[in-house]
Amino acid sequence: MAGCRPVNRSRSSSRSAEHGFASSWRSAQEGFTLIELLVSLFIFGLLASAGVMLLRGSVDTQAAVRTHLDALADTQRGISTLDADLSQAVVRISRLREGTSAPAFFGRHAQQSEPLMQFVRGGWSNPANQRHPSIQRVEYWWRDGKIERVSYPQVDGAKATEPAILFDHVMDVKVRYRSPKGDWLDIWATEPNKLPVAVEFVVTRAGGPALTLNFLVGPAVGQREDQKLPSADGDTDEGLGNGA
Length: 244
Known about the structure:
The chain is an alpha+beta fold. The protein has a domain at 84-227: Pili subunits (Roll), CATH 3.10.610.10. It is built from three helices and twelve strands; from the N terminus they run αααββββββββββββ. It has helices at residues 9-18, 24-30, 34-87, and strands spanning 89-90, 94-95, 101-102, 105-107, 117-121, 136-143, 146-151, 164-167, 170-178, 184-185, 198-205, 210-216. The strands form three sheets. Strands 1, 4, 5, 6, 7 and 8 form a six-stranded antiparallel sheet that branches. Strands 10-9-11-12 form a four-stranded antiparallel sheet, with helices on one face. A hairpin with a 4-residue loop joins strand 11 (198-205) and strand 12. The longest helix has 54 residues, at 34-87. The protein is elongated and about 100 Å long.
């Protein structure tokens, strides 16, 4: 058209560069600068590190939850075993392998040289139809930081089986035995044919609070509310129950 003058592209590009504007044609030809690459790599490294930290935190959380659930399951198994044994305790004087007689129930304060409790329980199931009686003599030990259950294939004069671990990492154990009068005793060795009404376990494990467990023993299981024994101060004990 008349009156139009051609545009000097080199002069326009120079002016754009002087004012801080890069030409798209020039950027496409020259690519990214070193600073732009370093910034990009830095941002990518930050994102990758954050992703790794999130993944590691998720894995650690899952492992902690699994460990806690396993410990909780072990505790529940131990409580169930104690409950099953004590709730089915029977009055049966047994004979040790040495030939001496053992009372129906003998309990002592926590020590590692002798069992915490030894008694005879009924209701021994026999799913495989093996030849063994329906009653069983059991002992509970605290040794090497573990509470173990030891059983005998025969009530009189038999050799103990391998112990089963109920609780591990046990730092301290306190055991008390409740008499029919409502008194809590540290040792139960009154009469050979008498059972305590209840047993209290206070188990302290490493890294956790003390766990208090109350179990009714033998004939005391299933008694009605109006048959609950008074405590030492004359009040009815409402906190007594298996596994409480």
